[in-house]
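Researcher: Predict the fold of Protein ECT2.
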Amino acid sequence: IRPVQRLPSISLLLNDILKHSDKNNPDHQALVSALASIREVMTHINEDKRKTEGQVVLFDIFNDIDNCPPHLVSSHRSFITKCDVIELSDNLSGRGDHLTIFVFSDVVEVCKKRKSFNGKSPKEPNSGSHKLNGGAKSYKHIKLMPLNIIKQVIDIRETEGK
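Model: Structure tokens for Protein ECT2 follow.
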């Protein structure tokens, strides 16, 4: 049994013992207390693991953006989603440019996709392939914006035959 599996297996064991124990048994309350404590510890471990995985995603995104501002990486920030978009104005990179936006809990990172090498598309964040392609990064930093300055988001979709 691996260390990460010990607490869940102990929890299952205590739960099984509790099911087969008489409620008048002097150890009953101690079993209930032990089971509650183990579940609380497992909850803390899972929360910390989730936070760590979120920070790894943040670092992977940061490492894949050329000229990315270092303050993108923050312990209070979490990654929400990534969207490929086309710029409709000339405010950031140029009208018609294919951009990628990384949405975080409090900021939006706007990037331009780099032209792919050998016909392959830029890698997804978290794949670690920027080490394999000679350090070339898939995205170029354009702008980091706080979410509170975004006034409106418009989703324009192409429709067939109209």
